[in-house]
Amino acid sequence: MSSQQRYRLRSPSSGREIITTAEPDQIYRDRESGEPLEVLGKVLPLAPSASKLPWAVENLRFCQWCDQHAQKDLNDCPTCGRRMGPL
Ligand SMILES: [Zn+2]
Prior knowledge:
elongated; mainly beta; binds zinc ion; 3-stranded antiparallel beta sheet; single chain; two-stranded antiparallel ribbon; 0% helix; 5 strands
C-alpha cells in the first residue's frame, strides 16, 4: 500500500506540470526557476492505495466480476476485492 498522496503541481511561469508525492505544509519549488509550485489537485487514486497509476483511461481495465474500473497494476479488484484474470 502506498500511503503517500500524490499531487499535480504547476510552475506558474512556465506552466510545466509535474506529478509528485507531497506532504502538507511543505513548499515545493520548480527545479529550474526556483519559484514555488502551485498545487493543482490530488491525483487519483487517493492514498492509501495499492495502485500507483493515475486514474486515467489508459491505465484502467474492467473487472470481469463486477464490471467496475480497476487500475491495470492491481491483481485484486478495488471494488469487489476479487482476483482479476491476466490482461
Ligand atoms: Zn470487481
